[in-house]
Amino acid sequence: xDKIIKLIKKCEDDNLNLSNNNIGAEGMKYLSEVLKIxxxxxxxxLSNNNIGDEGTKYLSEALKVNKSLTYLNLSYNNIGDEGIKYLSEALKxxxxxxxxxxxxNNIGAEGMIDLSEVLMIxxxxxxxxLSHNNIGDEGIKYLSEALKVNKSLEYLELSHNNIGAEGIKYLSEALKIxKTLTQLxxxxxxxxAEGMKYLSEALKIxKxxxxxxxxQNNIRDEEIKYLSEALKVNKSLEYLELSHNNIGAEGIKYLSEALKIxxxxEYLDLSRNNIGNEGRIYxxxxxxxxxxxxxxxxxxxxxxxxLLELPLYLSKSSIFINxxxxxxxxxxxxxxx
Length: 337
What we know:
Blueprint: H1 2-10, E1 15-17, H2 24-35, E2 43-45, H3 52-63, E3 71-73, H4 81-91, E4 99-101, H5 109-119, E5 127-129, H6 136-147, E6 155-157, H7 165-175, E7 183-185, H8 192-203, E8 211-213, H9 221-231, E9 239-241, H10 249-259, E10 267-270, H11 280-301, H12 310-314, E11 317-323, E12 329-335
Parallel strand pairs: 1-2, 2-3, 3-4, 4-5, 5-6, 6-7, 7-8, 8-9, 9-10
Antiparallel strand pairs: 10-12, 11-12
Helix pairs in contact: 1-2, 2-3, 3-4, 4-5, 5-6, 6-7, 7-8, 8-9, 9-10, 10-11
């Protein structure tokens, strides 16, 4: 631990990775004292250090006075609701932190009460990673209230949190009001048809969301029908992931109909679904429209683009199709930047 303390004191770089060092609560106590006076460090990686709630308490005291850290990764640290309470209190004072990684901890609904309260007043945090916790529908209820008034958060990661239809309902109400969130990750939750209905209604109104991740949510054709209706009127979404679901040919048909109208979606991941040969005809429609949308958006952003450059831009969109042993069609429509 002494070596780590000396390293930070002498550190002139702005980036320090201390992950996988078993720092623990006691080590965090000494480390936090250094962070109170350090003014050069901007990025700090502390994942997998068994910090726990006690260690987070010490760290939070440092965050109240630290004026340089902008990036903090606390993943895999067994931080529970008590630790989040300390951290939330620190965020009421901290004015520099923009990235906070809390994935793979033990945060539940109670912890979300404290975190949500501070998100209502914090104006610096732009990226928040909360995947693989125990937030659930109740926790999302509190977070959604914060999103209605928060004016800084742009990226929110909520994958693997057992969020069901009720939680999606709360979140959808927030999305109708929120004007800053551009990326939302709901990978591997439990949205269901009812939840997708709520989310789709929100997408008809929301004007800020650009990227939406809905992979591995057991989404079927019924849910895609709701989503497709939203895509007909949504004018902000560019990136949509729907891989590892149960979308069939009928669902692909709904999406192709929506894309005849939608002019903004450029990336659509449909890999690992049950499209089958029946859906092949609709895939061509989707592929062509994604290319058109990409070109349309680029032309809007670069009005002075030359005609001779158009083939180059078209070539950046690609489609990869694979047939598995069951003769099901897996498609991955990709936007290549």
